[in-house]
Amino acid sequence: MLEFSEWLPDQPAYGNPGANDAKNCLPLTSKSYGPLPGLSTVVDALSNSAQGAASVRQYDGTIHTFAGDDQDLFLLNATAFANVSKSAAAYTTAADDHWDFIQYGNRVIAVNGHTDAPQTYLMGTDSAFSDLAGSPPQAKHAAVINNFVMLGNIDDATDGVVPQRVHWCAIDDPTSWPTIGSAAAAAVQSDRQDLPQGWAVEAITGAVGGADGAVFMRNSVYRVQYEGAPAVFSFTEVERSRGALTGKSVVNVGPYAFFLSETGFYAFDGTQSTAVGNQKIDKYFFNDLDLNFIHRITAAADPVEKLVIWSYPGSGNVDGEPNKLIIFNWETSRWSYGEVVTQLIFSDTTVGYTLDQLDSFGTMETITTSLDDRFWVGGLNSLSAFNSDKKLSTFSGSALEATMTTSEFGGNEVFQLPNERMFINGVRPYVDGGTYTVSLTHRDSPSGATTTDGPSTVDGNGMAHFTRSCRYARATVTVAAGGTWSHAQGIDLDATQDGEF
Predict the structure, then answer these.
(1) Phi/psi at 411 (nearest 5 deg)?
(2) How much is the pTM?
(3) Which H/E stretch holds residue 402?
(4) Which of 489, 413, 474 lies closest to 438, judged by CA?
(5) Beta strands of 158-306 (E only): which ranges?
(6) Alpha carbon distance 192, 140 (integer Å)
(7) Using the 8-state DSSP alphabet, how is residue 357 labeled?
(8) pLDDT tens profile 128-161
């Protein structure tokens, strides 16, 4: 069997050990791809385009899913989003900013840039957000590090906009922000730090690897460690001339923080970064990315399939709306991509519904989310998105049309003899379900133009037939949309020697 190798579009066509296409599929294992489900709408639309979302769990187990647009904040209430802004249209979120939601105990804190005060919502008590007590500065980013809330990329009443600054609250009290430099601030370890390198804070994460946290600047990464009074935190620059291209490209999962820099995709372990896209997909991605809308990039983890997924505006996008996914399996280090239009993606936690509550979603004929999907079971992690209609959706629809290509093979690989032409009679795909066709792309020299035969359907024995003499070829298997399948592994080749070149 010629396996569907890992997707390596950055490698040269000749001698590429990988596939040059892996579209609308998931890199499930080291030897197979699986289907990429389409979006399935589950909740009605927000008022305007989504600019942030998060799910958190209250101490009593209740799940709360929040979202924000340019003017308001919302809380998912069964089958609809209820407006929980401090007042109607209370906020002014810039087009290139996002809502950052963090949880500190039963408190949710949200920041959206340099236009509004940080917002707070006490789960189980509050019915609407309000300004966070203590007069904290406005900020673009927030995280919980150790026992503190830390804000980054600051706009405060004294110094104005300070993009390289981080500022943290009193220990164990996110509602206390004493005047910096005062005895009161020193007593509760509240302070701030201007980071000397890296330009602007793009994201802050909590525990990663052995570090208490990390600050991702545009051109640097800092390791954050709690030291206690009087220093409180140490900030050690561990990466220079490499940082986060945009804040929402950073995903903290397990011992790693995955992020997109100006030079490609990396995994940060608390001490150093490792390239995960170099010589694989980095060049492909930047050639496809619409650089006018990098602020629209969002990312999230799918912990079930061990995937990190970035949604981004690629070629063919409309007004900067993300229309592509690039997908990384952190256990196998394999990539794939998808063509799905979203406003943003995020790691969701399912609320859970009873059979009696299903009526509000429609009838058995109109509910588009499979009843087997984890969306219906409370407390489970899943990957969700807001679609182009501003509606909360899950990746639980029918399988999208998937395309997987083998590496280029020649007579020397097939017959272990140099300079051999092949006569290809047929290709048998190893896909465990669905309806599929096979195309054969071939050429006679490394510099020659390619020609494609097919697509050809398979016969009752699972073979797609061809009559092609060539020196080099690759097979492309396309699995039709809507099919039921789990793994696509590769092909068998029915070929004979066809004389010397």
Answers:
(1) -60, -30
(2) 0.93
(3) strand 402-405
(4) 474
(5) 160-168, 191-194, 201-205, 213-217, 220-228, 232-240, 251-253, 256-261, 264-268, 273-275, 298-302
(6) 15
(7) G
(8) 999 999 999 999 999 999 999 999 999 998 999 9
